[in-house]
Amino acid sequence: MVDLLDFLKAHEEAFRSRARLASLYSDFRFQRTTNLDGYEANCAAWQRALSAAAQAGVIPSAAHSNDRYVLHTDDSLLSALQTAELGRPLALGAAVDDAVKQKQFVPVGDFMTAKTSLYAKSWVPSPWQIAGWGLRQLGLTGGESSGEDRLVRGEFVIVANVEAAAKAVLDHVSSISTSNTSGIFSRELFAQTFRPVLGDKALSPNDTKVLLTHLARDRQAISYSPETGTIKFKPASSTTLQPVTEEDVSIASIRTLLAGLQPQIDSLTERFDALDLKAREAVSKKQPIVAKTALRQKKAVEAAIQQRSATLLQLEDVYAKIEQAADQVEIVHVMEAAGKTLKSLNAQTGGVEKVQDVMESLRESMLDADEIGTALNENAANAIDDGEVEDELEAMESAEREKREAVEKQLNEVREQKARAEKEKQEADEVEALSARLAELDSLGTRPAELASPKVAQKEGAGDA
């Protein structure tokens, strides 16, 4: 088993510093009046440490229990924390007492017998609560600043550990719920199903009782029958818990059988393969007696596999029918509720005759509104002089026409100027090209008579002038 103090030093920051560890092992009860912050810090450190150690299963107990949600306070706990340098923690009882006052640790007896929720304002008015949350009735002292701090045998539910386990269970069940029957478990099936999310170790009987009580009473998430060991989770679509019925007990039993048969078949299959290999090896080694024995055993295992497989198939068929029937019951209940709702809403309308009267009254009111609107429009039309309207319209049209004509005139002038400019440029280009041609001919000493046109001559004369 992992040493408790080594675990705390490895996982709890407060236990790694030598000075801090010395403070935790000292009798810090007097700090309640001289240094309240220091006192509360030491108490909180011990509370976190004990919760983590319990969750990890490293707290020794005289009862040899492997509880993770229940803390056992006895002399073996102090012995596990004892060191050669610091001795035993001198104020551990005060730290546990403080945790009880804050409802972080709750005596198992009070937790299991309480009728109200753990989160109720007035919870379990027990003698230790009335007497200033002291634990003298339980044999645990240490709440006073004077006298010896004693830690004796006691059992306390670690609320933080239980809450974490409950959250893990509820998250997992929401992910695996596929029908109305998938949330029904026996205690055995519950432990088998939720073991992967609660840790590798199997739940102890104490842990199982505490967790189921918390889920049923404090979280209102399950209905639980201790007599039959049947657990029924509240469906996500439901707002109220339904009690465990005889049908639920049968469903839990079938689900448990189904969950147990498949591992049996898997184990028998492995045994079958091992015997087959053994027989083959015996044959190869020329050991007929060993081979025959292995074959006989293999036949027996094969028969067991066939029997269990047939049983599994039959149970799966029965369970499928139960699931179907349960879903049908849910559908019928929903339809029945919907029918009642529809009937109630129809009754609120007052029946067909009342609806017809309402619609007739509505039509009359709409006709009255139309007539009133028509009369108002006629009065408004009579108050307007049509002649003035025509004159104003003509003036607006005339102004718009003049504006349009002015724009068109400007556009025409721009187009004409652009055309003249293009024509003048074209003529200039022609004259320039002709002059270049004549200059080329003059250089050669020949000028055709046809090039001496009046227009060219005129332009040349104008150039000479």
Topology:
Layout: H1 4-11, H2 18-25, H3 31-34, H4 36-56, E1 70-73, H5 75-81, H6 92-101, E2 105-107, H7 108-113, H8 127-130, E3 154-158, H9 159-176, E4 184-186, H10 187-198, H11 205-218, E5 222-225, E6 230-233, H12 246-284, H13 288-349, H14 351-382, H15 386-444, H16 454-464
Antiparallel strand pairs: 1-3, 2-3, 4-6, 5-6
Organism: Dissoconium aciculare CBS 342.82
Keywords: Coiled coil
GO biological process, one term: late endosome to vacuole transport via multivesicular body sorting pathway
Give an overview in words.
A hairpin with a 4-residue loop joins strand 5 and strand 6 (230-233). The strands form 2 sheets. The chain has a 3-stranded antiparallel β-sheet with strand order 1-3-2. Strands 4-6-5 form a 3-stranded antiparallel β-sheet. It has helices at residues 4-11, 18-25, 31-34, 36-56, 75-81, 92-101, 108-113, 127-130, 159-176, 187-198, 205-218, 246-284, 288-349, 351-382, 386-444, 454-464, and strands spanning 70-73, 105-107, 154-158, 184-186, 222-225, 230-233. It has 465 residues and is mainly α. Among the domains are: 4-158, no CATH class; 261-341 and 390-399. The chain is built from 16 helices and 6 strands. The N and C termini lie far apart (130 Å).
